[in-house]
Amino acid sequence: MGDRAGAFFSIFIAFLDRQRLTFTYTNAGHNAPLLWRPHSERAEWLRPTGPLVGPMEGAAYDQVSLPLEAADTLVMYTDGLTEARSQIRKPFGVERLEQITSMRMADGAAVVVNELVKAMRQHVEVELQDDVTIVAVRIADGDSRVFGAGERA
Prior knowledge:
Layout: E1 11-17, E2 22-28, E3 34-37, E4 42-45, E5 64-67, E6 73-77, H1 79-82, H2 94-104, H3 109-124, E7 133-139, E8 146-152
Antiparallel strand pairs: 1-2, 2-5, 3-4, 3-6, 6-7, 7-8
Helix pairs in contact: 2-3
């Protein structure tokens, strides 16, 4: 299997409590998921709660629990999305991720995912250099229903 000294990886683990409308997560060095809260018209980036897994022996990982409200939208993704580069080497970026999410979240989680994939493919114009996974979850208005969508490109 080879020498694994110096190997590392990121992990994002989450639990969505549909009854209590809470989102609990631990983020070991993974990309910061986006939580868009339309009532406050702002985005929250769910920063890592610990380092990458591997390089630091005995590292600690915190758990964070957030309350959710109707119409909140969560977008979780791999770095293949935000680091996808155009022909002139410009990355897709987190700003574009936030902009598309804020503009399309009212249309639902599936639309957000589809619009992100469409925009990324238009941005790249060529074959992707990395895998891309996007999962979006939107809390339905008026009740505790949750709608989600995912895409792997």
